Amino acid sequence: INKTIAKWQKIKPDWCIYQDADEFITISEFLSLRQFIEIRDRMGYNVINQIRVPFFPTGEEDFSQGDPRKVFKYYNRKLELITDRSERIFKYCDDMDLLSSGAHFVKRPDKRVSMEDWNNPILHYSLRQNCEKKVRKICARLPEEECARGWHVHQRELVKLGKFRWDKSLLCDISRPDDPLNKFYPGRNSVIDLRKLIGDGKFRTDGSDMRSFVALLAGLVIASNAQLVFEIGTGFLNSAKSFLYGLEITGGKLVSCDPEKRWGNFSHSQFEFIQKKSGEVAKNWKDKVDILLIDGAHDYTSAKDDFENFYPFVKSKGHIVFHDTNFPQHFGCEEFAREVNGLNKMVFAQQPGLTIFQKD
């Protein structure tokens, strides 16, 4: 620690990162680490405090994979004895103190801390192959003065608990698509190519096509942390794939209904297709919906019926999205959308048009 601080004192960096070899600092996939730090700097913070998520062995690990993020998949969100926080990213100043906490926390004058949530955690892999023997050996030689300062807590607690192999049924599995940390799992492979969808739709102005709005739909899912999206009118899966890209991040599900199936072979673990009209589906529907997309038959009566069938199931603060609200051939959607009153509304007028309402 002292050697690293001595280097910083020579070069005077703006910000510093000090992490252990068994830690991975993870940031929302929409930002680079540099962008993340610059944003916190502009917000006036000089220390970033992150949740440190511990991963545990269950006896099923395949160490041939090498990358510990693939080897260890199981973690516990609630184990307070071992789960902790660390301040691994901080703005440099000459009189800061790292040594007293083993470089886990920063002491400095005028400390302003950004307390990060589970969206920007540190993934911690303190246990390796033959972990029980190694941990006991490590703990036996831990310097007493370091333990007195509060260092090495996670190792000593493991010995105290006597747990070196954990029951995976009691833990969270980061490899599951619906796990909240799955976006940080290196083995995660999205089946949705959002860049291709955006590329196909970026400059389209011909006809009633959803591809101009795919990034907006994916972003709406992520921003609202949607868990259930209901889509009326499946078409050729452009909106469905947009929603699914976001749902892969939130862990939610898409249900889509259409009396016609106009797409070929496609399957996704978070996608359910019902080949019926919305009115038929609504008769037996019970679940609350975060986002409702109305993109079925585009005449006035059909748009009105779709809205009335599923509006009662939309959650408070949920969103209702109408497609084709600025497309002359489908004027019925625009006509009905204009009649919807009393809700917050955002209109995207570029053809073919999109209107988003938010329920009170």
TrEMBL record:
Family matches, as InterPro entries: SAM-dependent_MTases_sf (IPR029063)
SUPFAM superfamilies registered for this protein in UniProt: S-adenosyl-L-methionine-dependent methyltransferases
Name of the featured protein: Methyltransferase domain-containing protein
Organism: marine sediment metagenome
Biological classification of the source: unclassified sequences, metagenomes, ecological metagenomes
